[in-house]
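We were asked to recover a plausible sequence for a given structure. The inputs and outputs are reproduced exactly as logged, with field labels preserved.

PROBLEM: sequence recovery
POSITIONS: 206
GIVEN STRUCTURE:
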């Protein structure tokens, strides 16, 4: 029963962090589960899981390549107009706010649009100003991306949009997951969390 309640709470947090406009109702719900909640209470043992993807250097990697150090994981895509750059900029600003002596986690961007996001495209994107230094971009097949997204209990969907450059966009949840050195979820951050919230939580859990 406890595990079911935790999973439900996590699902609510994901819901209020989805791309798109928020209603007053979801804003209120988000505020109750955002930066005000204890970051140590946001760990769920069923989040994460194994994966095989390709990094922005064209090298095949698995979750084992990112053990031994904390990692911030974000699902997004390079053509994302505002939500992804905002979230990654929050992560970058949080890294700059960490107290001296606290190791900065690496940041992994897992693309939900592998059709467009080749390793070469990701290599250019991860160098954007304001993003965390040494951010790693990951892509793969549709099947491998779906598998890792399922492991993180997140979702995304292609939305046809004739007014956009590509003719479509990707609707996805906006969550920063903090994985520990053993690839277990330490905590997560929603769009309600500020850089100061993220930095404080990372420092508390270090």
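RECOVERED SEQUENCE:
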């Amino acid at each position: 029963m406890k595990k079911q309640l935790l999973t439900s709470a996590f699902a609510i947090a994901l819901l209020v962090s989805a791309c798109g406009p928020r209603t007053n109702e979801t804003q209120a719900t988000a505020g109750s589960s955002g930066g005000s909640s204890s970051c140590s209470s946001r760990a769920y043992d069923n989040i994460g899981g194994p994966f095989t993807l390709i990094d922005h250097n064209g090298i095949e990697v698995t979750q084992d390549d990112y053990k031994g150090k904390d990692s911030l994981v974000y699902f997004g895509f390079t053509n994302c107009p505002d939500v992804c750059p905002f979230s990654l900029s929050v992560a970058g600003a949080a890294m700059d706010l960490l107290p001296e002596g606290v190791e900065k986690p690496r940041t992994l961007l897992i693309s939900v649009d592998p059709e467009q996001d080749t390793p070469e495209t990701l290599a250019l994107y991860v160098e954007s100003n304001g993003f965390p230094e040494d951010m790693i971009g990951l892509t793969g097949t549709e099947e491998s991306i779906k598998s890792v997204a399922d492991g993180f209990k997140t979702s995304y969907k292609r939305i046809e949009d004739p007014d956009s450059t590509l003719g479509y966009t990707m609707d996805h949840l906006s969550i920063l997951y903090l994985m520990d050195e053993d690839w277990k979820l330490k905590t997560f951050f929603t769009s309600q969390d500020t850089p100061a919230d993220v930095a404080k939580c990372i420092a508390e859990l270090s």
